[in-house]
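pasting for the record
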Amino acid sequence: MTVYAGQGDAQRSLALLWGAPEEPRAGRSGPRPGLTVDAIVSAAIAVADAQGMAALSMRAVGERLGRTAMALYTYVPGKAELLDLMHDRALAELPTGQPAVGGWREAVTAWAEELYACYLRHPWVLQVSQARPVLGPAELAAMEALLGALRPAALPPPRLRGAVSALWQFIRGLAAATADARGAAAATGVTDEDWWSARGTRLAELAPDFAERFPLLTALQSTGGGSPEDGHREAFRSGLAVLLDGIAAADPSEGEPSERESSAAAGTP
């Protein structure tokens, strides 16, 4: 289930995200005491955390607050705007300052760990497409924090954009795999152990020469162990290290325009 952010009214969504007071609209009475936008967003996140994105509706949020769905519309225009607020609120859990650790590698690792954990606390966030950003303060602060952590690496803009995209998508992908592994047993009624046992036994019967046909895969599997979630966690750590090795090995001059290209762009011979 993929949900696109930014589908609500742009003016009202951004006003809510950035805390600007809304202008009163004709025919709409003021908010009733006892309910706030923050309370609605918190309730919506609780619904999505507990039951998933498919269960999210204005009615479900209203029921959690002991109100009708209609009572919420005075505060939040609709589900589309609510989703933007939820997404930004979830990312607001990320630290905004630079970690008090060593160099840029440690800073990026700390940032990546925080984002990975945030995604797993709120797996529904992974269903919000990144095709269009929410443009909320927390979302932008998270990006600013990553750029700040990478700044000492002195990457030229093209390389920096590539590094940021690779890091964010890597973390998002591994978090999604871990979230899927957590939900598989509940959704299917079959534990991971039973699933692998049934298929492993049958595969051994159908392909007794499996190790000879796939020696590299067999060797790799023999070094693993633990639960699928343990495997995803190890993949996160090792994959992140590979990405950071690549960033560390990058030549800062690569990706910069050559002297000839710079002269041509400036209109000089």
